Amino acid sequence: MGQSMAGHLLTAGYAVTVYNRTASKAEGLVSRGATLVESPRAAAAAADVIFLMVGFPSDVRSTSLDPSTGALAGLAPGGVLVDMTTSEPTLAAEIAAAAAAVGCTAVDAPVSGGDRGARNATLSIFAGGDAAVVARLAPLFQLMGNALYMGGPGAGQRAKLGNQIAIASTMVGLVEGMVYAHKAGLDVAKWLEAISTGAAGSKSLDLYAKRMLERDMAAGFYVRHFVKDLGICLSECQAMGLALPGLALAHQLYVSLLAHGEGGLGTQALILAIERLNNTRLDNKPE
C-alpha cells in the first residue's frame, strides 16, 4: 500500500525520499525518481512531511521515536509526521506530544480501502491531530483518497478502529450466509447476485465474495494485520468497559486462521474458518 501511495506523490511531481526495511521493495519507486535512504531519520531529514506506513504499533514506535534512527530525530522544526498505519490511539497521542517537543507536529491518519484503494487513490483516510495541520495536508491526502478530520491526536486511530469493528462483523455475516446458501443447495454465485442489490449488499461482498468463490485468498489486507487491529480494538474496549461480543467472536475466528498458519492470506480467508467448523468446502455448485 505504501508503495502505491508514494507513487501517487511522485506522479504529482513531488520530490520523494523513501526508506524500507527491505530495500528491494522500494526499487519500483527508485526507478521512478525516488531517493532511497538508510533510515526513517534520513528520510525525514530530506522532507517537510514524512509519511509512515508500517505493520504494527512496535514498528510505528521504532520508526518514529527511536532516538538514533527514528523519523522525529531527523525532522526539522515545522515538519509534519503523518502515521497512516492502523495503530494504538495512545501511541498516536504519545507521538504527537513528542513531535511538539521538537517543534514539529504529528497527525494520525490510518486508512481503509486496502491494496485496491491505495492503487486507485480511493482510500478513506481518518485524520486526527491539529485541524489546521490536517487542512494544510489536504493536497497530499487528495492524491491518495478522501480525508476526513476526526478530532485531536488519536481520533484518527479511534475512527479506524470503529471501521474495523464494523468490517469484522460484516465479514462474519457474509461468510456465514455463503456457507448457509451452499448447504441449503443454492447456487452461491446466484445467491450473492440476488442479495448484492438489497439490504445485505456491502463493500465486503463486492470486494471479497467472488474471491472466496474462486478460492483466491491472496492478501489485499493480511489476516495477521487484521488480528492485530481487532486486538487493539479489544484492548480499547476493555479500557472503556465496553462489551462488543461480535468483535470478540470475529477476533477469535481470525486467530484460528493464524493457528492454521494462514496469517499471510487475505481477510477473505475467514471462509476457511467457517468451512472447518462445518466440515464443508464452499464451491460454485450446491451440495
How are the elements arranged and paired?
Blueprint: H1 2-11, E1 17-18, H2 27-31, E2 35-36, H3 40-45, E3 49-52, H4 57-65, H5 71-74, E4 80-83, H6 89-101, E5 105-108, E6 111-112, H7 114-120, E7 123-128, H8 131-136, H9 138-141, E8 145-151, H10 155-183, H11 188-196, H12 203-213, H13 223-240, H14 245-259, H15 270-278
Parallel strand pairs: 1-2, 3-4, 4-5, 7-8
Antiparallel strand pairs: 6-7
Helix pairs in contact: 10-13, 10-14, 10-15, 11-12, 13-14, 14-15
Key words describing this protein structure:
287 residues, mainly alpha, 3-stranded parallel sheet, 3-stranded mixed sheet, 15 helices, 54% helix, 11% strand, NAD, 6PGDH_NADP-bd, NAD binding, NADP binding
Main β-sheet description: 3 strands, parallel
Helix/sheet category: mainly alpha
Number of continuous helical runs: 15
State the share of residues found in helices, binned by percent: 40-55%
Shape: globular
What ranges have pLDDT less than 50 throughout 5 or more consecutive residues? none
SSE succession = HEHEHEHHEHEEHEHHEHHHHHH
User: Could you give the count of β-strands?
Assistant: 8
N-end to C-end Cα span: 38 Å
| Rg calculated over all Cα atoms | 20 Å
Strand order of the largest sheet: 3-4-5
- Average pLDDT works out at 96
Keywords: NAD, Oxidoreductase
Domain 6-phosphogluconate dehydrogenase NADP-binding: 1-150
Domain 3-hydroxyisobutyrate dehydrogenase-like NAD-binding: 154-271
GO molecular function: NAD binding; NADP binding
Describe the structure.
This protein has 287 residues and is mainly alpha-helical. The protein is built from 15 helices and 8 strands. A 3-stranded parallel beta sheet has the order 3-4-5. Strand 4, helix 6 and strand 5 form a beta-alpha-beta unit. Helix 10 crosses helix 13, helix 10 packs across helix 15 and helix 11 packs antiparallel against helix 12. The chain is globular, with a radius of gyration of 20 Å. The model has no long low-confidence stretch (mean pLDDT 96). One of its GO terms (molecular function) is NADP binding. This is 3-hydroxyisobutyrate dehydrogenase. InterPro entries: 6PGDH_NADP-bd, HIBADH-like_NADP-bd, HIBADH-related. Keywords: NAD, Oxidoreductase. Pfam families: NAD_binding_11, NAD_binding_2.
